[in-house]
Amino acid sequence: MSFLEIHRVTKEYSGFKALNAVSMNIEQHSVYGLLGPNGAGKTTLIRIINCITAPDSGEILLDGKRLHADDINRIGYLPEERGLYKKMKVGEQALYLAQLKGLSKHDAMARLKMWFEKFEIQAWWNKKVEELSKGMQQKVQFITTVLHEPELLIFDEPFSGFDPVNADLLKREMLALRDKGATIIFSTHNMESVEALCDDISLINKSQVVLQGNVHEIREQFRSHIYRVTIAGTEQPDIARLPFEILASEQKNRNTELRIQSTGLSANECLKSIMETHSIVAFEELLPSMNEIFIKTVNG
Amino acid sequence: MNKIGIIIRREYTTRVAKKSFIIMTFLSPLLFAALIMVPLWLSGIKDNESKKIAVVDFTNEYGKVLKSDKQYVFVPVKERVQNIGNSQLKKDYYAVLLIKGDLVKDSTAATLYSEKQVGIELESTVSRQLSEYVENKKLDAYHVANIKQMVEKARTKIDVTTIKLDEKGNSKVTSSIVATIIGGLSTFLIYMFIFMYGVQVMRGVVEEKTNRIVEVIISSVKPFELMMGKIIGIALVGLTQFLLWIILTLIISNIAGFALFGTSISNLQAGAQLQGASNSGAQQAMMTVFQGLQGINLVEIVSYFIFYFLGGYLLYASLFAAVGSAVDNETDTQQFMMPITIPILFAFYAAIYSIENPDGPLAFWCSLIPFTSPIVMMVRLPFDVPLWEKLLSVGLLVITFIGTTWLAGKIYRTGILMYGKKPSWKEMWKWLRYKS
Q1: Is the Cβ pair A85, B211 closer than 8 Å?
Q2: The predicted structure's pLDDT at residue B285
Q3: B259: distance to nearest CA of chain A, Å?
Q4: What residues of A are in contact with residue B10 (Cβ under 8 Å)?
Q5: Residue-wise pLDDT tens digits, B25-71
Q6: Which CATH architecture fits B51-154?
Q7: Residues B376/B351, Cβ–Cβ less than 8 Å
Q8: Phi then psi for A72, rounded to 5 degrees?
Q9: Does A23 score more than 90 pLDDT?
Q10: Which domain holds residue A159?
Q11: Which of A230, A233, B306, B429 has CB atoms 3.0–4.6 Å from A281's, for a disulfide?
C-alpha cells in the first residue's frame, strides 16, 4: 500500500521549472531513495512534502488523504542544511524543537531521556551546542528528527559529516525505525548506501523523473551480461574457441579470474562451454552498481 | 501551547537570561542616575576655604555694611589705592572691593577686582548687601514714619500662570517646559527602541540562517509564525527592559538623592532649577511642575506612547527581518539596511526640529506619514493634537505595519532558504512575486 503518493507535481520559480510533473508512490514501511545530481529538484520536492512550499500543480496524498499543513507533525525532516542554536544548551534545545513538533513537555522529556541514554550522551544535556563536535551535533539532530515518532521520515544527505562509526549507527537506527513502522525517504549521493538501504528509488534529473523502481529490478534491468569466472590453473583459455568475449583476465594465486561478456548466451550456456576445458572455482553475474547506473542515466 | 507561543517564549527567555541584557539593564539606570546626579552634586560642593576680600573704602561708610560669613571674609584696609592693578593687595587677597564714592549718588561706584574670575555668588552677596543698605538709606531720607513697613507690604512678585482653553471652554494649567520634556523624552525612547530591537530582530534572523537551523524549524512551523514569534518575543524583551529602566532609575536616583543631599530628588531638582530663590519660591516652582503635569493627560500620553512604541517597532522590525533573511551573514546587511535607517534617522531629526515648533508643517506631515509618525507624533502629543489627526496617524500606521509585515513575510519566506547567493534588489523583487 502506498503511504505517500505524489501525482504530477510541478513547481516553477519565475520561468525556471524546478519540478516537472514528478510522480512517485512510496510504499509503507519502506526506505525510498531520492537520487539525482545537484540542482535536479530533490530539495524542492522534499520541501513540498514538508509543506514548506506549495506546488504550482499536482497533488500529494499522505496515507490516502490530501496532504495538509497539520500533517507536518507526522513528518520528521533532517535537512541537508542543518544546524542548531550555538549558544543554547543541548537539552533545552532538543526540548524546544520537540515542543515545536507538538509534543508536550512531559512526553518530550521522557523520550529525550530514552534517546540520550541509547546514544550514551546524557552528559551533554547541559553543554552548549558550540562545545560539541560536528559529529556530536549530528547525533542530537538525528534525535530531534525522530523524537516525535513520525510516520514519515525524510533524510536529506544524512551521512555527510558523519564518521564511519556514527554513519553505521545511523544506518542501523534508520532500519530499526523502518522495522517499527516508519516510512523513510532518503536522499543521498552515496550510492553504496542506496544499495544497502533502499527498497525503491527515483532518479531525478533536470526536474524530471528519469528512472524509477525497485533497486534490485533496476539493477537487473541494467544488466549487461557480465560474469566473473574463476578457473583453476594459470593457463590462458583459448579465446577463439569460446563463444563469448573476455573483457579482462588476471592471475590470482594459482587461479585465473576472467570478466566475460556474452550477448547471445545464457549464464548456463557460458558455463557449459568453459566447463569443457577448465575446472571452475567460482562463477558470478556482475550486476551494475547504482553508481554506474546513476552516471549512465544522467549522462546518457 | 500553540507554536507561536513556544517561539515567543524561547526568543524572550534566551535574551532576558543573557549576561549582556542583565548588565545593560542594571547598569544603564546607574548611568542615567549619574547623569542627573553628578552635575547636581558638583554644583552642591562648596569650597570650605574662606576667601578674604580686601575692602578699600573711600567713603568710610559702606565698607562697614558688609558682613563676613563662612565663605567670604571682608577685611577693611587702610590704604587708599586707586590703581588696584599695581598694588600688593591683589596678590594678598582673593579679591579687592573698591568703593570710590557715595553709592546713593552713584550706584556704579563699587567695583570688584580680582586675578581670577570671581564667582557669581560673591558678586550677588556684595550687591545684595549694599543695595539693601542704600535702599534703606534712601527711604530714611524721605522722613516718612513707618515707610519701611509700607514698602515691605507693597512689595509683590507676580507669577504668571498659563491657562489653555480647550474647545469646551474648560481651562487647563499648562507648562510648555514640562510638555517639551515629556515629548522629547518619549520620542528619544521610541527612536532608540526601534533601532536597538529592530537590529536585534535582524541579527536573530541572520543567526538562524548562518546556524542552518532555520530549515529544521520551518519543517515544524510556518515561516511567518517563526518571523512573528521572533518579532513579538523581542518586543517583549524591549518592553521589559524599558520598564525596568524606568523603575530602577527612579529608585536609584531617589536613593542617591537621600544619600547625598538628605532630600528626595524631586525636591532637589525643583530647588536646583530656581537657584537663589527663596524657599517659598521653590515650593511654587514645584507646584507649577505638578500643575503642568496635571494639565497634560498622562493616561492618554502613556497609551499613545505604548501604541507608537509597538506600531513603529512592528513596522520596522518586519523590514529588518526581511533584510536578515536575504543575506548569508551580518556583513552583507549593510547595503540593505540603508533604506531602513534613513527614514528612522530622518524621523528623529524631524522630531528634534518639531520640538521647537510642534504645530508647524514639518511636524504635521511627519506625524501623519507612518514611517516617521511613531517618532514625530510623540513630540506633538503633549501639546494637544486634534483628534482627527491622531486617528488618521494611528490608522495609517496600523495599515502600513500590516502591509510591511505582509511584504516582509514574503521576502522572508524565500530568503531564509536561499544560501550562497548574493541577493540583489531585483532578486528580492522576484521573491515577492513567488507563490507560496
Answers
A1: yes
A2: 53
A3: 41
A4: 96
A5: 888 878 877 776 677 677 666 556 678 888 888 888 888 888 888 77
A6: 3-Layer(aba) Sandwich (3.40)
A7: yes
A8: -65, -20
A9: yes
A10: 2-220
A11: A230
